[in-house]
């Protein structure tokens, strides 16, 4: 009886030490799940999900506090990606959070801008350039289209302009199910 | 690998997987000799005629340019310059329709030609290219704007620089021209074989390769004979013209290498990894011109064919010539014309308008009748017959690719090597259900690229956002530290407060003194006193006297105090 108790205690102690050691030795910094969720989010930092940015939302999803359908800029693609990653069901986008819109960038009407710097403070990716009482402008290539600069503007001089389709960004469309065949490849004899 | 022996060649040849025997339809366009097309009034030069970054304009509207002058310079490594195909005046730089499947507009330089076709100053010809370093030849090819003329338009200078990790032993010149209807390479090899052979020489030297194989499909016997004669005349043993069996798509780069050597290019790889570089024969001719004559790429041979055009033929066309003018030169459209296709019937794309120009990549203008290019049949469900897998020259599983592309599963399509698909169209051609398979693959490829771009963009946004958060945190910390320091300073030295109060008072006094001194130095000049009556003068004098008296009183009051 006593020998059994001692044996089990010795085993428990050994494994406990081993586990404790490996917990320190093989410690993983940060939460890899949060990183992977964050990687799927569009990084607009728009806050439409109700969190302060993409990473806080990723943390909330990882902790099971938020649904995966709260990201309008990511739209269906993001929801499918998250559902795949987390093994959850694909759910339609939460309409309360907004709707998936075509890509747009903010443009400042430079005639109207009074140089108040409020939009600069609102931009989460530092895409607005300007100084107090000087005209501001948006660096289009850095703008994520989050619309966070719109509400603070006291003179309503910022507008969202849809990104125009050009050849460099053109994509082959999904084939029309009704039509078939290659362009022209019937034999002529 | 089944070995096949072609009756026209003495060397051993191999076979690639799949492939199709198609009706050639090449005879229509080779009846007339090759001739230059007429000089058009306007030349439209898209800045994006190649794979890579688009070129950057160097000229302004209204500027006079001479033939061969650089109009736009390359931006970045994978890019190519654009040269003026004829002399004239730059009429416009703006968005115009360009030959692209989207039908969208692209930035173009428009030249109004002056009819003189006068050459500008060209770089010196490099006659003794054997003594030149490969870098010099590469730079010449790059500055001459030579891109792959087989249809892909990849900048040729990049292919000439495989890097020290990939020594090249064999150069392959692609004269297979396997797609039906297209005959521009055939005409080039028949009529100007010496240009191809000298191009092969230059390329051999630039790459440091030992031998060159020129692969030509055996349905072009005249071209093979002409090339053989040119090779014999040049008297170089390292060049060999090889007839390959006619089988679509033997002109695919990887397929031709396999036919000629039996070696397979690894998946997702390039031929340089196994010591081969493959160039189109037209590209070789353009490289010969660039090096041996110094002329940039300003024209190319274009096949105009199909039942929709009166006189099918090959023309030497200036880059930028509108397709409508080319059609007019070939006798115009016939009533049967139904569709205008740029490229061949298998891999080409339909044009939305004939107002677009010929670009460096445009090898064939196919004005197809309804008989040649019928409207596609409606797609039926896949019956899993497996015909597509049997004909696929890249040895892929088109059915699987189709299912995953249709489900928009971009990870799975890449697991099935979507990016090894050469879009040859064999699978769509044989599909009994008329499923537009290639269109699904193009869609999946485009989506995958777009997703990749989105990812790198969102990574960039994440970095910027994090940088901003860090900066805000740092600023907040600095602000708090500053406040704390000030508070500590105040707590530490209460005595300094009074002294600072005293210095402040002293400063105020000093300022008052300064102001008084300034006032004294500039006594007030009486103004508007020229036209006054004596009574008014007297009145003023009285007022002044009173004021002075007041001042004195104040002074004495101050002293008494």
Topology summary:
The complex is a heterodimer of chains A (about 190) and B (about 550).
Chain A: H1 2-25, H2 32-40, H3 54-62, H4 75-86, E1 104-108, H5 118-122, E2 128-129, E3 137-138, E4 158-162
Antiparallel strand pairs in A: 1-4, 2-3
Chain B: E1 3-4, E2 13-14, E3 35-36, E4 42-46, E5 56-57, E6 64-65, E7 70-73, E8 82-83, E9 88-97, E10 105-113, H1 134-143, H2 156-159, E11 170-175, H3 184-191, H4 193-207, E12 211-217, H5 221-234, E13 239-244, H6 253-261, E14 276-280, H7 281-292, E15 299-305, E16 313-318, H8 323-329, E17 337-342, E18 349-350, E19 364-369, H9 387-391, H10 398-406, H11 410-415, H12 426-430, H13 437-492, H14 495-521, H15 534-560
Parallel strand pairs in B: 3-16, 11-12, 11-14, 12-13, 15-19
Antiparallel strand pairs in B: 1-2, 4-10, 5-7, 6-9, 7-8, 9-10, 15-16, 17-18, 17-19
CATH fold name of the largest domain in chain B? Rossmann fold
How much helix, percentage-wise, in residues of chain B? 25-40%
| End-to-end Cα distance of chain A | 96 Å
CATH architecture classification name of the largest domain in chain A? Orthogonal Bundle
User: What is the CATH homologous superfamily assignment of the largest domain in chain A?
Assistant: Electron transport complex subunit B, putative Fe-S cluster
Radius of gyration of chain A, in angstroms, nearest whole number: 26 Å
Report the count of strand segments of chain A. 4
**Portion of residues within helices of chain A:** 25-40%
In whole angstroms, the N-to-C terminal distance of chain B is: 123 Å
Could you say how many structural domains of chain A there are in total?
A: 3
Largest interface: A-B, 40 and 61 residues
Proportion of strand residues of chain A: 5-15%
For this structure, what is the CATH class of the largest domain in chain B? Answer: Alpha Beta
Low-confidence stretches of chain A at least 5 residues in length (pLDDT < 50)? 178-189
Strand content of chain B: 15-25%
What does the largest sheet of chain B look like? 6 strands, mixed
Overall, the morphology of chain B is elongated
């Amino acid at each position: 009886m006593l020998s059994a108790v001692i044996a089990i205690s010795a085993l428990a102690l050994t494994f406990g030490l081993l586990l404790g050691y490996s917990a320190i030795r093989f410690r993983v910094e940060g939460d890899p799940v949060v990183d992977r969720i964050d990687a799927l989010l569009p990084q607009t930092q728009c806050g439409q999900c109700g969190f302060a940015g993409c990473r806080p939302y990723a943390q909330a999803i990882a902790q099971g506090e938020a649904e995966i359908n709260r990201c309008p800029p990511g739209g269906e693609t993001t929801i499918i990606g998250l559902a795949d990653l987390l093994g959850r069901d694909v759910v339609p986008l939460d309409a309360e959070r907004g709707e998936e819109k075509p890509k747009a960038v903010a443009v400042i009407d430079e005639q109207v801008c009074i140089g108040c710097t409020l939009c600069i403070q609102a931009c989460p990716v530092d895409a607005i350039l300007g100084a107090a009482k000087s005209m501001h402008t948006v660096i289009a290539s850095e703008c994520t289209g989050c619309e966070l600069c719109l509400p603070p503007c006291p003179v309503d001089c910022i507008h969202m302009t849809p990104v125009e389709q050009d050849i460099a960004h053109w994509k082959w469309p999904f084939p029309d199910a009704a039509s078939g065949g290659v362009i022209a490849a019937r034999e002529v004899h | 690998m089944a070995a096949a022996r072609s009756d026209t060649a003495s060397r051993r040849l191999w076979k690639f997987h799949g492939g199709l025997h198609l009706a050639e339809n090449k005879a229509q366009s080779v009846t007339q000799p090759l001739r230059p097309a007429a000089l058009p009034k306007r030349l439209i030069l898209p800045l994006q005629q190649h794979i890579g970054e688009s070129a950057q304009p160097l000229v302004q509207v209204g500027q006079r340019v001479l033939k061969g002058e650089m109009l736009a310079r390359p931006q970045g490594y994978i890019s190519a310059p654009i040269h003026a195909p004829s002399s004239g005046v730059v009429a416009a730089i703006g968005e115009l329709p360009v030959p692209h499947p989207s039908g969208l507009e692209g930035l173009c330089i428009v030249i109004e030609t002056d009819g003189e076709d006068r050459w500008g100053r060209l770089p010196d010809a490099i006659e003794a290219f054997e003594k030149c370093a490969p870098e010099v030849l590469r730079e010449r090819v790059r500055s001459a704007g030579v891109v792959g003329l087989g249809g892909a338009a990849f900048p040729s200078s990049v292919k000439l620089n495989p890097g020290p990790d990939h020594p090249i032993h064999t150069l392959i010149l692609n004269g297979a021209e396997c797609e039906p209807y297209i005959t521009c390479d055939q005409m080039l090899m028949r009529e100007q074989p010496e240009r191809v052979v000298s191009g092969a020489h230059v390329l051999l030297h630039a790459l440091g390769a030992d031998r060159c194989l020129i692969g030509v499909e055996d349905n072009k016997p005249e071209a093979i004979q002409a090339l053989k004669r040119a090779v014999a005349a040049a008297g170089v043993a390292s060049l060999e013209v090889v007839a390959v069996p006619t089988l679509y798509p033997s002109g695919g780069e990887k397929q031709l290498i396999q036919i000629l050597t039996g070696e397979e290019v690894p998946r997702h790889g390039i031929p340089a990894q196994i010591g081969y570089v493959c160039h189109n024969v037209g590209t070789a001719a353009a490289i010969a011109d660039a090096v041996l004559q110094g002329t940039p790429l300003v024209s190319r041979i274009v096949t105009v064919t199909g039942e929709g055009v009166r006189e099918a033929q090959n023309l030497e066309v200036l880059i930028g010539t509108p397709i409508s003018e080319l059609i007019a030169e070939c006798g115009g459209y016939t009533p049967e014309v139904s569709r205008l296709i740029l490229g061949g019937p298998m891999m080409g794309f339909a044009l939305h308008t004939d107002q677009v120009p010929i670009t460096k990549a445009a090898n064939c203008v196919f004005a197809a009748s309804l008989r040649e290019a019928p409207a596609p049949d409606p797609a039926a469900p896949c019956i899993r017959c497996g015909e597509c897998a049997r004909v696929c020259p890249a040895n892929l599983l088109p059915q699987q690719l189709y299912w995953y592309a249709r489900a928009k599963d971009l990870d799975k399509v890449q697991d099935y090597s979507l990016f090894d698909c050469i879009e040859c169209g064999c699978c769509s051609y044989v599909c009994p259900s008329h499923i537009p398979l290639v269109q699904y693959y193009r869609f999946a490829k485009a989506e995958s690229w777009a997703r990749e771009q989105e990812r790198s963009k969102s990574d960039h946004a994440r970095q910027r956002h994090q940088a901003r958060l860090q900066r805000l945190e740092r600023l907040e910390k600095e602000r708090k530290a500053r406040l704390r320091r000030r508070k500590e300073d105040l707590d530490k030295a209460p005595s300094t407060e009074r002294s600072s109060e005293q210095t402040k008072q002293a400063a105020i006094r000093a300022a008052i003194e300064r102001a008084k001194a300034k006032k004294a130095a500039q006594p007030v000049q009486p103004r508007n006193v020229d036209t006054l009556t004596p009574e008014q003068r007297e009145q003023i004098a009285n007022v002044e006297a009173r004021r002075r008296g007041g001042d004195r009183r104040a002074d004495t009051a101050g002293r008494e105090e």
